[in-house]
Design a protein that fits this description.
Blueprint lengths: L29 H13 L9 H31 L4 E8 L2 E14 L4 E5 L2 E4 L3 E5 L1
Pfam families: FlgD, FLgD_tudor
Keywords: Bacterial flagellum biogenesis, Cell projection, Cilium, Flagellum
Protein name: Flagellar hook capping protein
């Protein structure tokens, strides 16, 4: 007997209102967590409502998630600013080809979601740095 391993998981990538989930890492972000909580509240049984202790615990988890994300952004910024004036080597992918950029970090740029180091007049993502030297 053959076992079918081709599953259609497209239903797992949509909210109840039909909008698509656009989180490429498949991690539960704060927006998805809040949407899940609202959906849970909308669909609870009126004769058996959610226990207030459960609701408070979920809100605490939401708050903790948000604070961890804020800390992560702060640590990334500190890491980027600590590289100012240092010589770094980074692996940069552009148009399907990989190249190595080496130079002194002249400035740090933040575009709202990503940090970039300016090296020899070009912006390099902080995540692409492979080595650092004084």
């Amino acid at each position: 007997m053959a076992i079918n391993t081709n599953y259609d998981n497209s239903y797992m990538n949509t909210y109840t209102d039909g909008t698509k989930v656009t989180n490429p890492n498949s991690e539960l972000g704060k927006d998805q967590f809040l949407q899940l909580l609202v959906t849970q509240l909308e669909n609870q049984d009126p004769l058996n409502p959610m226990d207030d202790k459960e609701f408070i615990a979920q809100m605490a988890q939401f708050s903790a998630l948000e604070q961890m994300q804020n800390l992560n952004e702060s640590f990334s910024a500190v890491k980027a600013y600590s590289l100012l004036g240092k010589t770094v080597t980074a692996s940069v992918d552009s148009n399907g080809s990989s190249s190595t950029v080496t130079g002194k970090v002249d400035s740090v740029k933040f575009d709202g979601s990503n940090l970039y180091l300016e090296i020899n007049g070009s912006d390099v993502s902080l995540d692409s740095v492979t080595s650092v030297s004084d």
